[in-house]
């Protein structure tokens, strides 16, 4: 057990005693979201007479954390600058409401943050860690992959850190450059024992985050920061969860399947309208939502119907998670495929600051790839 993990155990025990005594919360993508706001709300969103409120994506995350802290007295929120609300204000007001023992700042050390979280979760806390940018999660790679993901396995189920959730803003934003615009979900997809989630909007962010917090496996929750203030939706103010490892079919179609997650869902939504208008083809759009373990059943069912696939993601093309999806599709749906599985992704270079808007998939790139498929196959 590392020093940070031991510290997490000790501080959690101290904090739990205290809390018990006290007790008796990118431009292209932005334009795409505003034009495709209808796809943000899940089709199975509750329709009973519950209170709803318009929230941004960051507002829904703040609301989810508020509810988690209120419902679970062992829950703690920690990270760099979270006490005053964090860089993006996702934790605004939570320290004032729940106290400095449950919402607190950490030193600037990602491996220390995650190591502390592992120790806290092992000691029985619901540990919710924030990494200020997903780009800087890599110093904690060893803690996440070799400790958090393997704790239950190496002890034969005797102990685990399933109460750990790690939040991190990710993705292209238009001006973040090589250190503030990366999408690194694929790095962690090799680690059995983790769950990885990327929401596309406020409704999904709140429900999926609450599910991650309650799930008994360590979860990585990557938040598309370009949507923090631009994504808005009318969502329930009360508690609800959305199932993990369940993709959502946002648009049914017959000619080609387009798979995306996070902010790319909105870009893909624009592209399917262009495909219909320019090519006269019907697209089926799937939001993967959970990267690990991903919903193979929904994807395979769609591909067997359409026979053609385009996968869009912001991460570099080489070894991006789209490669894993493409491989699985070709292994399981080969005799239904009418064309090779295609990927539209970021370039295999660092995200360029000046040219960031040209780096990732756009509706035009997706349209070009779809058009090429129908021309060549």
From TrEMBL:
CDD domains: TPP_PYR_E1-PDHc-beta_like. Its EC number is 1.2.4.4. The keyword Oxidoreductase applies. Residues 55-230 form the Transketolase-like pyrimidine-binding domain. Gene3D superfamilies: 3.40.50.920, 3.40.50.970. Keywords: Oxidoreductase. Its cofactor is thiamine diphosphate. This is 3-methyl-2-oxobutanoate dehydrogenase (2-methylpropanoyl-transferring). It comes from Olea europaea subsp. europaea.
